Structures are given as C-alpha cells and as structure tokens.
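Action item from last week, closing it out:
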Amino acid sequence: MVSRTSVSLSESIVPVFSLTLERFLYSHMYTTMGLLGIIVASRGSGQLTFGQLLPIISVTITTTGLYLLNDVYDLNIDRISHPERALPRGKVSPRQASVVAVGFLAIGPAIALTQSLLSGLLVGMIGLWGVLYSVPPVRLRRFPVVPNGVIGFMVLLSFLAGVSFTAEVTGKTVFGGLLLWALFLLHSLEKDLGQEEGDAANGVQTLPVILGSDTATKVTSALGLSAFIFPAIFVFVFDLHWVLYLILGALLLLEAFFLRRLYYSQGTSASGTWYLRIFGVFVALQLVLLAGALF
C-alpha cells in the first residue's frame, strides 16, 4: 500500500520536473547558438570533447532557469493567454518554480567559471539580462520591441560563450554575434503572437497589442523573412560552407513553425506539442553538428 507521504511527494515533484524539462526544451535555440560558437571557433576540427560541451550545458541550465523565472512573473498573463500551463493550473506553485530557477541561475555560470573568468561572465550576463527581462521593477518584457532586442543579445552572449571555451573572443566573433543579435531581434517578434489578450490586460506593449493580430502577423512575417540576410553575411564573414546557411535557415523556419504551433494550439494537443518540442531540439542540434563536419 502506497503511503500518503509518497503520493504527496510524487504529486509535488513530478509536475516541477515536467515543467523544468519543458523549459529545458524551450532553451534549444540558445543551446544551438552556443554550439555554433564552438563550431566557428574550432573550425570543424572533427573532435568534440567534454570540455567543449560545458558551454552548452552552462547556457542551457541558465536559460532554463530564466524560462522558469519568466513563468513566475508572467503568471497573470498566462492565466488569460495560456491557462493550460502548469503554474496557472496550480500544478506548480510560483515558489517551487522560483527555487528551481534560482538554483539553475547559480549553477549555470558556476559551470562556465570552471573554464575561464570570461566564460563565466558571459553566461552570467545571460542570466542578468534574462532577470532584467522578466523581473520588476525593470521588467523589460513590458516594453515594445525592447524584449526582442534582449533575446537577440542573449543569443549573442550564448554564441560568444561557445567561442570562449575553445578560442579567444575577437572583434570578428563579436561582429558575428551582432549579426545573430540582429537576426533574432527580428525573428523573435513572432513569439508574441497569440497572447495579446493576456499581454494587454497586464500592461505589456507588444507589437500584436499595438498593431492588432492581423497587422502584427504580416509585419513580423515580413521582418522574419528579411532577417535571412544576416546568416548569409555570417556565413560569408567566417568563410563557412554554404550549406550552413541552408541549415541556419532550416533552424529558423523550424523555430517559427514551433512558435506558431505552440501559441495557437492553446493546449488542445498536448502530445503533439511535446512531440514538436522534442523534435525541434533534436533536429536543431543534429543539423548544427552536421554543419560542423562540413567546413
């Protein structure tokens, strides 16, 4: 006979673990950018050591913590726009999510510090900007376009963190990171689609709130397509194999499809959404690893 304590513990831990795993999968684009930094720095040496995996681990842990933290401070928005999520449903408490988030935000930069002070600072800055994105009184999340620039900047830092584990961060790699910043500044505008009701009710000024859903969809789609010029420049600057451009394009299309499917599903197909998340992470990482073997 199962004790009440065991049942209570299971009911408490399983939802927290499930939410953490879900947010871990959300962080796949930051993970991928860290891996891209490793590939650019190592120039396709064909070897991937455990030490080179550390930036991926540290970036992923840090951004997972940031997603959990954002869930806590977006709770009122999600009660309207995403009531099917764990926190609005009461499956996970804000305190539980906060504890895991703070733990991850401490562990991620600490892992990076084992490599170098620069690596630790870069990953720490990812955490800092993520906190400024979500947490009052600053809460950059409430301003139009600014949070998209923050997301792009965190992508830049993820890329440079990957570079810092295998080579020196130079002006050239910083320029490459700025190209990725511009790319994700435009590309991430799509993430706000489908939740304008919750954003508007909580004073968050996104493009869908300002322009309306239909106009914002057209604008973000046009800007997202125009963003493809930046990976083309990136490939040219680093003299990479042209196939990498196609792979980056495929990653962006996959991410756009992932976001649209996620935000418009509204929890009606949980199994399908989980499949998309797992599939997205797997394909993204495998494609970039393939790119590393090509140049």
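Closing note: The CA atoms of residues 241 and 294 lie 7 Å apart.
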